[in-house]
Amino acid sequence: MPNPAELLDLPDFERAAKDVMSLLTWEYVSEGAADEITLRSNQRAYDEIRVVPRALVDVSRLNTRVSLLGREHAHPILLAPTAYQKLSHPNGELATVQGAADADATMVVSTTATVSIEDIAAAARHPLWFQLYVQPDRGFTRELAQRAEAAGYEALVVTVDTPALGPRYRELRAKFNLPPGLERANFRGRPTATGAQRAGEASIFSATLDPTVTWKDIEWLRSLTRLPVVLKGIMNPDDATRALQSGVAGIIVSNHGARNLDTTPATIEVLPRVAEKIEGRIPVLVDGGIRRGTDVLKALALGANAVLIGRPYVHGLAVDGARGVTRIVKILRRELEMAMAHCGRPTIAAIDSSVIWR
Ligand SMILES: Cc1cc2nc3c(=O)[nH]c(=O)nc-3n(C[C@H](O)[C@H](O)[C@H](O)COP(=O)(O)O)c2cc1C
C-alpha cells in the first residue's frame, strides 16, 4: 500500500482500499444490485454532463457555506449512512465521526452501525444526523428515534427505499456475514444483533426492515420526535409531491448507492424532476456516484441543496482511519472550490442551472 499522504484523489483511495480490505469487505462495500447497471450509471451520468466556465468574475473570496435544517454547514458535503464500519477499520464509526469533525462534515449515522447511537454521539465534535430503518417492532423503532433525539442528533433520516433486500450476489458469493466480535450495536441483546440471518437469506425480507411501512408511518414518526424528519431514497417525482404533503423537513434523492433495484435511472438524472416538484420549499439532497468536485457542482446546479457521499469515505476509513475520512471530504471540497472558481460562482447560491452546458 502506498503512503496514504501520496493518495491524491478519490480513485487513488478506492484502489488503495481494495488492497487493504478483506475480500468480503471489498465486495460488500463496492457491490451494487444484480447487473450493477445503475451502479455504473450513477457515476457515468455525471461524466456525461458538461459544465461551462465563466471568465472574469472575482472569485477571490470563495464561500461554500450552506444552510440546512436551520444550521449553517461549512460546505455541502455530508457523509451518507453506511452500515458495519468496523468491517473497514477497527474503530469503525468512532474513526468516521472524528474524521467527519476534522472536515467540518455532518455524518449520518446508520441504524446498523457497529458502534451505538450513544457512543458515537459521545465522541462527536460536530452535529450528527441519525438514519432510521423502521423496524418490524414499532416499540423498538420508537426507542431508536428517541435514543437519537436524547443523544443530541439533529435530524432523523428515514430510509424509505428498502422494503426488501436487493439481489446482492457479490456479498452472497463472498459469504457475507458479520465476523465474530462485530454486532449491530443498537440491537444489542436482540436476536438480530449479529446479523446471522443475513447470508443466504431465503426470504426477500430482512428481520430488520419492515415491508409494511407507508406514509402513515411517516406521520407517526413525526409525532414521536421533535427532530426534523428527512426521507432518504426518493426516486419518483410523485413521491416528492407526497413527501411535501407529509410535512417532512427534507428529502434525499437516492437509489441506495444502486444496491437495491437495478436499472433505475441515475440519481442525477432524477434530481431535476424532483427539484421541480419541491420548488425550493424543503431542502433536496442527492447521493450516488459523486466522486469529483465537478459532480458536486453539477448536483447543486441541477437542484440539490447539498450532497452525500457513501463509498468514498468508507475507502478513506479503510486506508487511513479518521485521517482518511477527513482527506476524502477535503479533497472533494477543494475540487468543488476549484470548479466554482472556474465557473465564476463564488458562492453556493450562485450555482444555478446555467452552469450546465446545454
Ligand atoms: C457499504 C454500504 C452500506 C450502506 N448502508 C446503508 C445504511 O445502513 N442505511 C442507508 O440508508 N443507506 C446505506 N447505504 C447507502 C448510502 O447511504 C448511500 O445512499 C450510497 O452509498 C450513496 O452512493 P455512493 O456510495 O455512490 O456515494 C449504504 C451504502 C454502502 C456502500
Strand-helix topology:
Elements: H1 10-20, H2 23-30, H3 37-47, E1 66-68, E2 71-73, E3 77-79, H4 92-102, E4 107-109, H5 117-123, E5 128-132, H6 138-150, E6 156-159, H7 169-173, H8 215-224, E7 229-234, H9 237-245, E8 250-253, H10 267-278, E9 284-287, H11 293-301, E10 306-309, H12 311-342
Parallel strand pairs: 3-10, 4-5, 5-6, 6-7, 7-8, 8-9, 9-10
Antiparallel strand pairs: 1-2
Helix pairs in contact: 1-12, 4-12, 9-10, 11-12
Flavin mononucleotide (FMN) binds at residues 28-29, 42, 80-83, 110, 112, 131, 159, 232, 254, 256-257, 259, 287-290, 309-311, 314.
Task: Give a verbal description of the structure.
Helices cover 39% and strands 11% of the residues. Helix 1 (10-20) runs antiparallel to helix 12 (311-342) and helix 4 packs parallel to helix 12. It has one domain (4-355): Aldolase class I (TIM Barrel, Alpha-Beta Barrel), CATH 3.20.20.70. The chain starts with 9 loop residues before the first helix and ends in a 16-residue tail after the last helix. The model has no long low-confidence stretch (mean pLDDT 96). Strand 9 (284-287), helix 11 (293-301) and strand 10 form a beta-alpha-beta unit. By secondary structure, the chain is α/β, with parallel strands linked by helices. The strands form 2 sheets. An 8-stranded parallel β-sheet has the order 3-10-9-8-7-6-5-4. Strands 1-2 form a two-stranded antiparallel ribbon. Flavin mononucleotide (FMN) binds at residues 28-29, 42, 80-83, 110, 112, 131, 159, 232, 254, 256-257, 259, 287-290, 309-311, 314.
